[in-house]
Amino acid sequence: MSDIGSADEGVITGSKYNAPSNMESAGRGEFDVSSKAQQGQAEQELATKMLQIQSKRFYLDVKQNRRGRFIKVAEIGADGRRSQVYLALSTAAEFRDHLSTFSDYYASLGPPNPENLPEDGKLKSEMMTKDNRRYYLDLKENARGRFLRVSQTITRGGPRSQIAIPAQGMIEFRDALTDLLEEFGTSDGGYKGDLPEERHMKVDNKNFYFDIGQNNRGVYMRISEVKSNFRNSITVPEKCWARFRDIFNDYCEKMKKTSDSPSSITAENNQVPTSNNILK
């Protein structure tokens, strides 16, 4: 019985993914500093590996763009359909470790019994989180066999993407991933020190929260305005904090000068006395 799981549908468009199937890894490319890169090419492919696992091909591509380095995992089915997930390098390292655990568990199982399948098909599950992404790892069994489904979701909504790795190929997949991580490391880049603690302030019936975070784009500040069941937020990249501060300070100085001007003081003194003023 073959260990083949279904995955999301997607049409292959790149010629790379139509390469002939074989068991060898594709050649690793060096960082391209060609004229295309100098002209501002959006994305660089640093290395790639191709795996043939049963009727599926998997491409593990180490890529780099303005946000940093990551691994794109593309699954090409026997019918030519493609699905893919994206992993930060640190997430890829965590995934590699989970692959070892899932492989050990799979090895401990008895042969599949089509007449006694799990009710939901799940044999073992784990979850990984990275910034605004969640990854669900489910070792599943259906009438066609056992496979590891890797689903990627985004917390703010959007479509779910997923791949399915035949269970018999998890060790091979882990080893290929390990080779890439040994070459390119597991660091996502960005700020290395301790990030400042969150801050909070309340003005009238509103609460403002200042949270410092980090993702593969770098360090950012999220400023959230919360009022009863209403919440709104903006994200300010660390590279423009100083400019953001200067604009804010400029407004503060201009408002201070306006409030301290003689005309505003005269207007305040000419106000009709109120009960509060009289009591004073």
In short:
This protein has 280 residues and is of the alpha+beta class. Helices cover 26% and strands 38% of the residues.
List the helices and strands and how they pair.
Elements: H1 35-38, E1 43-53, E2 56-65, E3 68-76, E4 82-88, H2 89-108, E5 122-130, E6 133-142, E7 145-154, E8 161-166, H3 170-184, E9 199-203, E10 206-215, E11 218-227, E12 230-237, H4 241-260, H5 262-269, H6 275-279
Antiparallel strand pairs: 1-2, 2-3, 3-4, 5-6, 6-7, 7-8, 9-10, 10-11, 11-12
Helix pairs in contact: 2-3
Family: Belongs to the PUR DNA-binding protein family.
Region (Disordered): 1-40, 257-280
InterPro entries: PUR-bd_fam
Could you please describe the fold and organization of this structure?
This protein has 280 residues and is α+β, with helices and mostly antiparallel strands. It has six helices and twelve strands. The protein has helices at residues 35-38, 89-108, 170-184, 241-260, 262-269, 275-279, and strands spanning 43-53, 56-65, 68-76, 82-88, 122-130, 133-142, 145-154, 161-166, 199-203, 206-215, 218-227, 230-237. The strands form three sheets. The chain has a four-stranded antiparallel beta sheet. Strands 5-6-7-8 form a four-stranded antiparallel beta sheet, with helices on one face. Strands 9-10-11-12 form a four-stranded antiparallel beta sheet, with no helix packed on it. It is elongated. The model is unreliable at 6-14, 19-41 and 274-280 (pLDDT under 50). Keywords: DNA-binding. Residues 15-24, 260-280 have a biased composition (Polar residues). Residues 1-40, 257-280 are annotated as: Disordered. This is Transcriptional activator protein Pur-beta isoform X1. Belongs to the PUR DNA-binding protein family.
